[in-house]
Predict the structure.
Amino acid sequence: MQLIKKNKKIFAITRVIYFLIPIIIIIFLFTNLPSSAVEVSSIDFIGEATLPKGLIFNKTEVGGLSGITYNAKNNLYYAISDDRGQKAAARFYTLKIDLSKGYLKKSGVVAVNVTKLLNENNQTFRPGETDTEGIGLTNKATVFISSEGDAAKLINPFIKEFSLSSGKEITTLSIPNKFLPDKNGKQGIRNNLAFESLTITPDKKHLFTATENALIQDGVAAKPNIGSPCRILQYNLLNNQPEKEFLYQTEPVSPFLNLTGKFASGLPDLLALDNQGHFLSLERSFTGLGFAISLFQVSLEGSDDIHQIDSLLAVDSKNIKPVKKKLLLDLRTLDVLLDNIEGLTLGPKLPDGQQSLILVSDNNFNSLQRTQILAFKIKIETPLIRLLRRLLPNINP
């Protein structure tokens, strides 16, 4: 009898051990993975809205929306206009985007406020002084905004922090010299191909921007069937200093029925998905007949820091490891007439618990274009979920 009890006890202990071993292995593997690194495993289109052409709000024309960011505390969006002061002073709009039904209706976007940007002297910026393109929300009731400047007029690009409520300038981040245009045209940003993008990590410790095309000393601007080597620039927001740079190569795009001969292609926005260097990137091209828009998943893992290299043409750039990219979605596969999509942001969780994603277009204040808002539902998986999928392929967490 005692032997039977002893055997039962040993059997119970063995069962516990066998049960705990895989759990211990999973915990061990998980603790050796970046705890917050995420990956988009699926994306579904859930609607389109278009603002009325020539929409006037608070005596300003709503348009040129080149970047967008989301405030989860009040379910509002802030969209920056790239108007260079020709229609009204530099400004951003506050938008409401209704995703409460799990999709975006055609009338689901409304403007509720406009905030003019004020410089350090508490005055609006002069016409032509700014070309504001990117926007990112902090946890201090402020936004960082990037401007491309004007290389042709030797107006430097900038990244500044502004009050969310008053629009007053608070902080200016220093721009490394290699990005600044010079009078000889031998270095720095190309005109209208500079800091289109801006994103801040979820922990609010780092800000990222990127050139839309190559710096003059880094390589060629994008051409038909030829991509361009852009630079991603990383800032530490604990000390407001630039600290790293990474090579991002845009995809070559083929023009289609390009009767006008006009062609433009580049990197208009980035979106930080976590604190470990994982992003969504947006590549946009005008191909002669409409726009080509693509979403990529991007990882900095294993890529080289190039902040000490002033010119990629002066080194053997073949030895430089660029950021990793994977195509997530070619928007030309959607049943949607695409406009000039330039901005993206995560929105709220949808009723089914999945994450929303919002894209916005810059209509260039052109009567032939539209301010277009596209909504998507994306599935974001953590390393633990991906590990469980590999170990237990039949589960559906």
About this structure: Residues 129 and 172 are 15 Å apart (CA to CA). The chain has two helices and 22 strands.
